[in-house]
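Appendix B, example 12.
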Amino acid sequence: MNPKILWCSGLALPVLLVSVALTACGYKTTDYSRPSTAVALARYNANGTPDTANVVGGTGLVTTDVNTSQDDVAFAVVRQPVDGKIITVGTSFTTPASIVVIRYNTDGTPDSTFGTNGITVTSLPSADASAFAATLQTDGKLLVAGRSCPLSGTSSFLLLRYHTDISTGTAGTLDTSFGTAGTGIVTTPIPSGSSTSANAVAVSGTNILLAGHSKIGANFVIALAQYTSSGAPDSTFGSGGIVTTPVGSLDADAAALAVQTGGKIVVAGLAGSAASQIWDVALLRYNADGSPDTTFGGGDGIVTTDIGSSSNYANAVALQADGKIVVAGNAFVNSFAGTSDIAVLRYNTDGSLDTGFGNPNGYVTTNVSAFDNGFAVAVQSDNKIVVAGNADAGTGDRLALLRYNADGSLDADPMTGFGTGGIVTRAASGPSTIAGAFAVLLQPGGEIVVAGYD
């Protein structure tokens, strides 16, 4: 199984991460009833139409099949600010799974100066290597986070750093000044933990932050790790560079991460029961040293939100310029009935729901089709909110892209709005029968780039 999406069940990101973590390492995508997926990169104009003029092929979509017999999926996308080149990061579910990094020119063609014909594949000895998140340092180097899962043993946080500029090293190669024994790779087990995965990465000053989960005792807990710029654990953060946070007696997982001005750390995910699959949105804030921010939520740094007494969870988080926190994910989830809506929530800086958003709830839900997932979120300079994910999960996924006004209403103006009623969907281009997005970024000209699978 793919640890970040199981499109045949309709389960969303954090639920799948926890569910898969209950099983042994060494899982694979083995759904031979459909063609395997390729990495997909698509660009849309600001109004939601495909950018057919500036992307090679004339469809606004580029697919890259790294391994034709296995699923290839992009879980993250970044844009290099100097030259506008785009990097996708994800996983090829070979045996064992490998990390895939692809760099594209601004028109979507592979960048031949990066890796081999634009592609770098990184494998670990006798272990699955899965990448779920990526970000750029200020010097342009690429940070990739995910999961190291030995075929026998305990899984760990996985962090890698790659060169992107020939002035520091060969573009597309691991940075041997980083990590363990000059490998460019860091693996971090969580003390007393098992079934561990890093799902998000961010830069905090010169430090590097990872967030995810680990199973300690009977429950999954939220886990954070901070590293210095060399990849060494940051001894000033938590205990030896690691912080674990249980949410009461519940299972919990961190799916997304953001760093506020001043260094406070915002983490979004879920809290609930891995056994019953009943979840609430979880939002936590930490001080820069990893201690709970007692000014946030109920004094423990934790906020949980139940939308309509159903199963809900967060997959992504973004910060507005005014400090408000935007979360995207799922609501009204019933994996047995195959139904779910996309959810967007906005919180004030103290963790209270912003009742001016989706008045009076502080959240909005959108039903695109049967089982819908909101996997990624970005906030425009005008505070319009862009959410990317999929629709019809489990029956023939379509990519879904939505835009909301600053008050939470869909950007549906027939003249100046986005797509049709604020929504854009796209079916798979073939031969794969499914398509979706896990990552979104906003370009300076207003274009929207999404990355995922097709």
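The chain is about 0% helix and 45% strand. The two ends are 17 Å apart (CA to CA).
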